[in-house]
Amino acid sequence: MLRRPLRSFRRHLLDRMVLRPSQHPIHAPTLERVLLPSTGGSIECFVQQSHDDSQPPDLLILKFPGTAGRAERSTSFPTPMLDAERTAIWTWNPPGYGGSSGQASLSTMADAGSIFWQTITEQHAGPNTSIWLCGNSLGCATVLHIAAKHTPDPAHTGLVLRNPPPLKLVIKKAAKPYPHFGLINPVIADLCDAMDTMKTAPKVNLHAVILQSELDTLVPVDFQNEMLKSYGGSFQKVLLKGIDHDGLTTEQHEPEICDSIRWLWKNTCPANTMFEAD
């Protein structure tokens, strides 16, 4: 009888430990705000595209920010590194973030992520559209959940993941300095499977670019590599030397990032597209 309330309490603790939602207004004059219908409300998205809606894009990118991220801060990365002329980038605010409805939680994030994926790909992708899912930190967990659940076509779909976290290891590391940190074990045991990258990564068979911050203290590179051992697809890793988890990339990193992005484009663009990687 107590199992269900106890699990609910533990998952509430996990949400409080992991998520950093905010709802204050952020000025985003260069982005288009769109509200998508969702279960019990709406999902707020911010869009940037290089063409009108009369034709599907050559490349459709869905972006998933990190635990404290917001869609209003979305950039055009990685489209400047490619030759595709028609591109569209949709960045979401998960439930409880920005203007999206609902409460911020790991489980609702996974469910809403599936709705976001289905809605955007069904409405905006054409038969010759490549689709990339780009995740930053916690956003990578949502990306891997979507890729595992919906099994997209690997010939047209790719991932760009920056500092993908095995959440249980990350939470254990964060709790270790505190007294009685061993009590965290039953709490993390109730992490929902959808956001456990150690369980979703083996189910994903897509080309991926992995951007790893060399000095990451939140999600150490060793943790990321432990998760990537079981990843089901092929990938290229780029070590971002000299920066921490949220560090900004520099010109030093750009050539290797660009090479990996073009590798992903070469492996995911439809054969009959007129745009190809150099």
TL;DR of this structure?
With 278 residues, the protein is of the alpha/beta class. The chain is built from eight helices and eight strands.
As for the CATH topology, it is Rossmann fold
Query: Structurally, how many domains make up the residues?
Result: 1
The count of DSSP E runs of length 2 or more, i.e. the number of strands, is 8
Helix coverage percent = 25-40%
- How many alpha or pi helices? 8
The CATH superfamily name is Alpha/Beta hydrolase fold, catalytic domain
Residue-averaged pLDDT:
92
Order of helices and strands: HEEEEHEHEHHHEHEH
The whole-angstrom Rg is: 18 Å
Oligomer: single chain
Give start-end ranges of low-pLDDT stretches: 272-278
Explained architecture:
With 278 residues, this protein is of the alpha/beta class. It has a single domain (3-268), classed as Alpha/Beta hydrolase fold, catalytic domain (Rossmann fold), CATH 3.40.50. The protein has eight helices and eight strands. Strands 1-2-4-3-5-6-7-8 form an eight-stranded mixed sheet, sandwiched between helices. The radius of gyration is 18 Å and the shape is globular. The relative contact order is 0.14.
